[in-house]
What we know:
single chain, 368 residues, mainly alpha, two-stranded antiparallel ribbon, two-stranded antiparallel sheet, 15 helices, 4 strands
Amino acid sequence: MKAISDTLATKLPTKISHNRPKIKTGKQVSNFNSIYFTLVTTTLGLSTLYMPKLLLETGVILGLLVLGFSAILCYITCSFLSQAARKMGATSYPMLTKMLLGKYSFLVDIFYILNLFGIIISNQTFVSKTLSGCVARIFFGNIAHDSVTFTYISVATIFLSIMAILPYITSRNITKLKKLSKFTIIGFSFALATIMATYLVPDFFGFSIAPFDLSKLQWANFKGLKTTSGMYLLSMAVHLVIIDIDCELRPGTDRQSSMLILFNKITCFFIYASISIYGFLAIYQAPKLDNLNNYFLFFLSHQNLNHYVLRTAHIMITLSIMFSSIFAYIPLTKFFNSLLDDSAYQVFENEGSVYEVTRQNLFIFQSL
């Protein structure tokens, strides 16, 4: 990795016709802890609810090994992106690809946009579906999901959920999302505690767990790995926003950036592993496991357990996922703004090389 980073460093301009931007210190740069929590909430998402299912399909030992390998792989690649961006002076993923690939960077931009859209659509679909069901149950009781009333509720829920996060989507400063990061951490923590409680104190929720049977445990299922390996990898991936978040750490050292990513992967690994193990042990002998996707919905709908703690945890993690999806909106809006605003570029020239830096991506910088 060092050799590749040194190679990238040779592409940096040695003499620039304009003053290089200097990173501000003070209020515009978050401290390490707040950025750490922001990165954790960005990493956690829908995968939190799917972890017991993934472990069930992959096997206990193989599933944890794949989860750990995914964490290591994402740590290496995210660290590489962070170091390359620092050496090239890039403040976003598209800017880095533009510096490295020039006119061919549009090929990467296409996949960049599609990936962000995929994250937004999947999160928004889950949030709208879950909140619509909760609103319908509270105000209208049990109504059919194919009814006109439920359709109206779904449309209204989609509109309201987007309006709730709209002020943060238009923000150009990730540090303004610190309060949301704290809320999402609380939401994910409550969900984790509830999942652990379903195994440790099942009587509290009104259901029983069959005695532990070692013979029914599946240690490794390589056939299931075909479908779960991608989910494990995506659960750890934050490549599209890691540079944006790392900018808030500057002018910290490369070591601080590397430690930030390392702590993030270790934290997320233990959170995912805990959810996987406790959730798996609570349901691996339960019936109707084919319906297990959303862990909480499995108990609420398919096991008919209408417990207030399960419903609270389901709503809290839904809201946490809704707010964590903001971190996919911000780089997307910044990217489109840079495309629409031709004057939003500052050009640095050196010996025939031209580096275009959007002002949108320089919101934490000031000129010398």
